[in-house]
Amino acid sequence: MKLEEQIPRNALVWIIATQFVLLFPHLGRIPLWVLVLYAATALWRAMVYLGRWSFPGGYLKSSLTVICFSGVWVSYGTLIGLEPTVALLLIAYSLKLIELANQRDAYMLIFIAYFVCLTEFLFSQELLITLYMCVAVMVNTTSLVALHQPGQDRFNFSTIRRAGAMMLQALPLMILLFVVFPRVGPLWNVPLKTHTARSGMSDFMKPGDVASLSLNDSVAFRAQFEGEVPDRSDLYWRGLVLSKLDEGAWRSLRWRDIPGDQRRGEQPELVGEYVDYSIIMEPTQQNWLYALPYATTRDRGILRSNDFRLVSPVQVQDQKRYEVRSWLEVPLDVELGDWRRGVDTSLPEDGNPQTRVLAQQMFEAAGGDPEAFARSVLDMFREQAFFYTLRPPLLGENPVDQFLFGTRRGFCEHYASAFTWLMRAAGVPTRVVAGYQGGEVNPVNGTVIVHQFDAHAWNEVWLEGQGWVRIDPTFAIAPARIEFGLEQALAEEGSFLAETPLSPLRFRGVSWVNNLRLQLDAINYRWQLFVLSYDQERQYQILNRLLCSVGQSQLVFLIVGTWALLLVPLAIAMVWRNRGPRLDAATRHYQEFCRRLRGAGLPRPGHEAPTDFARRVAEERPAWAEEVAAITRCYESLAYAGDGDPAALAELKRRVRAFRV
Amino acid sequence: MVRAAFTESWQRYRERAQRRWKRWINRRIPPAKQVTLDQKRVFIFPTRIGFFFLFTLLVMLVAAINYQNNMGFALTFLLVNIFVVAVLHTYGNLAGLTVHAVRASPVFAGQRAEFEIMVSRAGRRQYFGLHFDWLKQDSAIINLDDCQQQHVKLYLRTERRGWYKPDRLRLETVYPLGLLRSWTWLDLDIRALVYPRPLASGELPGVSSDQPDGMAEPIPGSDDFYGLRDYQRGDSLRHVFWKSVAKGQALQSKQYTAYADRSVWLDWALFEGLPPEQRLSHLCYWVLEFDRRNEEYGLRLPGVTLEPDSGENHRLTALRQLALWGSAAEDQAREPLRAAA
After folding, report:
1. pLDDT for A154-208, tens place per residue?
2. Which of B66, B85, B145 shows the shortest C-beta gap to A166?
3. Do the chains contact at A114 and B59, CB–CB below 8 Å?
4. Chain-centre distance of CA B264, in angstroms?
5. Cross-chain Cβ contact A107/B52 below 8 Å
6. B153: which of A246, A474, A630, B317 lies 20 to 30 Å off by Cα?
7. H or E element, residue A534
8. Is A300 helix (H, G, I), strand (E, B) or coil?
């Protein structure tokens, strides 16, 4: 094989290193045997390099391919969807290594690696991941550079330096392209994520669900208010309305559960105060969005459900930004339709008999007034020995009876559920609302950070003339939960994030840790706001602003000009670096002298010694003889004495300056 | 008919284009003993792999669009611009290099001539993967990473006697990314002397000699050793008595008796009736043969007479005369050829 087609040892090492660097962030979502495959192919290729083993034969290769593909099929149950596709790509990337024989194969591998970098971004575009992928791209580019250093088999820094320099130089140009490249909608449908775990709330809730979310310290969404952040106890982020009791679990109405004429819902009259804010939501793989009631949005891609929530027609697969205006005082469903009333008062035929009896008694005691009845239920929770805990005992049959008359320990979903039972048993339309409550205001940038542990369930009761009124039974048990957050509410129990002892959120008391965390969160928010949510609309705004000042046709010149402005200094720097070593000062002065004589028709050829030259000049132009001899003497003493006497140098300089032909 | 006419006109067109190209490149990179590469002399274009890379980027762009993935866009644009700055870096891997012609060794027609060139750098920039390719006959790859200069030897086939001046040398590189190739065509003003191809002719037909008694048929194997003398300049290295050198004594040459006092004229007229090139080939053979036997010989060509002598210098002069006989006067001058405009 010709030398230029061989793969230098360095390049091989870098290529294998790239494989592991790229595999690492994928590890969470691929079957573990893929890692084994990577190790095996790397070992095999290393053995081939050492001359111990040979490349696998065609038969072995094809059977390996078949085995791996079936492996993906077994692991995922399908080959369709984003995750199996990416797994297949990762496997092909790994298998290609054991047929890496010449330069063409190496190019293939390196280009596949660039594509693998892209697939990682389909799952996460967080700042940290992005920084990590920068390193990955750098390592891959380094292997491409190493591939073109023939015969290099010892580690050298020039490879990394070159790759790094090219990336740094490409960076400003990249930003330019990122801003101006026209953003268009998807060209065709692409496989979606199907195996990624859904996170956050689910659309049905049984006792213990919200409690388990409370163990999770990841961010659910961040909200940035235009004006002041409303009071903490007003931050009820509605996500789901759970109206239906299904085998012990509360669940939201499906599309087909809703009769056609009810699907649009009532359009409430917009009165009173409102707040404007934008939300950047982390991907949930679900459709619903979180917002304060009553939420309206100008975003054309977002729908409104009949229970006044915001819904995205496609699952939220990436971080999603939306702008909301919430009318906090608008009454909802002032007139309650029969269908809605039926749904929100229905209970199973049997079960929880004690609860039903208690509800009847209390309703009568309240004089048949729903509002008074609700108040008396809350009073019961407050005054009797009910406890708010993350570790409630398990409930068996007739869970509400058990809870109200037995254990009396529960988390928000227990109280919301029991409250709904009581109200519905007395015929008052009531439903469970699930979402998040509160959030942490980041003093650095004023965003409200809502974590998964802010998950909450509360109730809405329909009252004549007021529509749906929010009632939070948890507030009766543990007002601290609403006013200060979960950590305060669980202070005595000490169960806040008990299972993640290293979570930075547990160290909110230590001020520097907390500051660092909040600063990082602010950076993350900016990243999401300016980079990840940069879309057609944003681009339109920015370019519009540019176009206003420069005019449409000049925009092209602006882009090309900026591009040139970035590239030209680079080119100049390169030419500059290629100049030979800088001549010493004496030689430069002497050359200037020779240049002047050449102007006078007396060129000095390269082989002529300065003294010979001086003699020749003296013969041809006797008038200059003295001065020429002086300059030559001066130069020779400087050139051969070698110590660069500054006085002599100054004299040479002066004489050359003064010399006139 | 039409086809033949087409082929012909195509041929004419190609020749014209080639002439024009030569004129243009001679203006742009004139022949010189040493050439320093700069933006005037370096060309650049994507390689096939480069185009494939751009295609990969297109696929990545489509993926980024379809998933509306901003970091996907960012990655794609980063790679696009790495390609763009690679133009500068690939050019930079030739720029600043100086290529010098060092020497070309003389050979017999049909053999490969050795051309030695030197590459040097001015600054401290590391150059990798410099690929020399001469007429697709010989190539070499060198790095200039930890030394200031490197010598490269390339071997080119020769066909005819005379001065052999090869066409332009191609120096190219795809470093650092292999996506772009920058190259240059160098005319290093270097030429090799090509002697006629030696052609054995059985026996020398009627050797002419000045002395009547000097006439003798050379008898192979009769060159008897008779003694040693002090080495003199011009003695063949093959006759040096190496054993004494190994003992630390002065250089001595072995002396052979046969024909030592006879001189032979290798005459153009000896090969009456043969075409000139064949005569020269035969004469060449005999020059080598007599030199090997360490005999004196003279050379007589139309217009050229070389008095009988022996030794290395004599042999080289004779061979040079044979190589250059009949070629234009300025060709015989020591100054190297100026490329024909």
Report:
1. 888 889 999 999 999 999 889 988 988 888 888 887 777 777 767 778 888 877 7
2. B85
3. no
4. 33
5. yes
6. B317
7. none
8. coil
